[in-house]
Amino acid sequence: MSYASNRYRITLFSIIGIAMICLCALYSQYTTNFDSAGIERAIIAAILGVLGIGSVFVFPHFSNKKATCFWILLLCLGTRIALIPAAPSDDINRYLWEGKLTANGVSPYQGLAADEKYSEYRDDYWSRMNHTDKPTAYPPLAMLIFRGINSYGYSPLSYKIVFLVVDLIVIAMLLALLTHLHRPLHWSLIYGLSPITLLSYSAEGHFDVVMVAAFVAALLAFNKRWFVACGIAAGIAVGVKLMAAVVAPILLWKTGWKGITAGLITLILPLIFYWSDLYSVLNALFVFGSNGAFNGPVHSLLRSLLDSIQSASSVVATLYIICWIAAFWLMLRGRLWSALLLAFGGLLVLSPIIHFWYLTWVLPLIALRPRLSWISLSVTSSLYFLVWKTQSETGVWDMPLWAKWMFWLPFTLFLIAEARRDIPRMLRSAVKRDEDISWSVVIPTYQVELQQLKATLTSIANQSVRPQEVIISNAGDSPELEEYDLNIKVVSSDLGRGQQIKTGVENTNQSWVIIVHSDVELPPETLEKTSLALLKNQQAVAGSVGQRFDHASPGLLLVEAMNELRATAMSTSFGDQSQFFHRKSAIDFGALTEQKLMEDVEMSDRLSAIGETLYIGLEGTVSAQKWQKHSFLKRFLTVIEFVLRYRLSFSEKKRLALCEKFYKRYYS
């Protein structure tokens, strides 16, 4: 299905892509030395964050999945190649040197890097290595991987090339996962074009990408029900980065003995090479995990209140145990994605030390189900690079206080807003859905243009999965309809879209309802693909299809992008996006409303409080006529004002009063 705005989208997406590649190349020019250019790096990273998010929501429509995947991977490759010349992190020196020890049959666990016993192996990388007074933080499997990469070339470039390839494999696996789950493929760019990912791996060369790749492989294998492969991938994830141990049990619990056994064997096998050093391995990991504090939002706050790093660490450790138990409980209730995000996200938020590349651990989960809180960190995490400015001015490696606040404040505010919606839903018993998915289409009409309604009904008649019934909930004179190969029923309703939708739904008999406005044309595979997505997500009770206008302009493209952002990252959809929901759940839990205006926002909020919501990303074509009748800017600002004032009205009585006021003003 062609969209009028696609030409604008292709142009804008191309500009964003070229700009990001140029910015990545500029970043490389500023970071010929890893400890230089703090302000410049922060500015470039922030711009990359804004452009990366923008690329997701202006992504153009391509003719098929292969073309979509090709352009996603091509842009991700281009940005990463542009970052190869950037100076790597000093962590890469440890990878090189410890890989060298392993290749020479010397255990890096038998002492500190500064110990004289290793003096004969010292080289330039050893001299540039950080924390030589601390034991290694990497498990045995990581050492074997370092040794393998060294065999291709004893230089940072070898690591950066390998990690670039692994990072692209992560994106390819995310595309496979999104395809399997019937979700929009361009969500992979939330991970693929985030500066957090780009700068962590292609620029700085951090080893975490191997753990992330194994974690995503385990997710893919779990969803494909390849439980042995899931266990192997999870075992590799833990074997290269111990932090993955917080999600491995949650992921493997439902794989049965095959997955758990495969995971344990994969984890234990590399230990055989260092069996005599097992105590030293565990002690090194403990020392690393309990030493220091930097940029942990909760830990920093507790440290200032308790005036003690040890006390703050004890409190956050206790809080995380509670958090992990809650995550395991969510997994048992069938909410795997929420459990994984709580386990990994909770570890990050409560950790005493948070470097910006740690955030990559969570980004694959956010690419599968976007959340505004975590997406916002792709912009605010750029403030991390101010540590080099502070260090050059004061000699202390730390972020300015204001930067710490701005790093975490937007995330915290968005997280609180999401928690207000998500926590009651998680505590609620899972909604029991009908086994079979059958569709009723409800079309609210009032003084509708007959030509538009005919186009809408034709698009419904052309669905690859046919609806069992079409209910036209009419508040005016009954429209004269042609003969369609559809079971159409016209019912009378009082005026007001909320009332009309409620009346229409009450006259339906199928398990699922989709609300289609009379000026919307659905793509022919809409009901089929929505049904497949619902089958893959048994927790979902509602969602929206998406929308594109039948005319193109920069202003209309902005509206499309903002609507998609709200529907994907904030679980708030509009009526033009063709909302759908489980009929029995909507009626039983009182999700329907009689409001004349903002009925779509209210219904969306009520439905998201019941269960998960889906954004299908298969956009229907909507008439832009109402945006063209009057000043675009005036209408745009009016809609923004309505939504903000409605959101800030916390009492039902005040919201209803606002709806009456808005209704008269909106349609005047």
Main beta sheet:
7 strands, mixed
What proportion of the residues form beta strands (DSSP E)? 5-15%
By helix and strand content, what is the structural category? alpha/beta
User: Cα-atom Rg, whole angstroms?
Assistant: 27 Å
Number of domains: 2
The amount of helix comes to 55-70%
Residue stretches low in confidence (pLDDT < 50, at least 5 long) are none
Distance between the termini: 34 Å
Query: Given the C-alpha coordinates, what overall shape results?
Result: elongated
Strand order of the largest sheet: 3-2-1-4-8-6-9
Number of helices: 30
Q: How many DSSP-defined strands?
A: 10
Q: Could you tell me the mean pLDDT? A: 90
Labels describing this entry:
single chain, 668 residues, alpha/beta, Spore Coat Polysaccharide Biosynthesis Protein SpsA, Chain A, seven-stranded mixed beta sheet, three-stranded mixed beta sheet, 30 helices, 6% strand
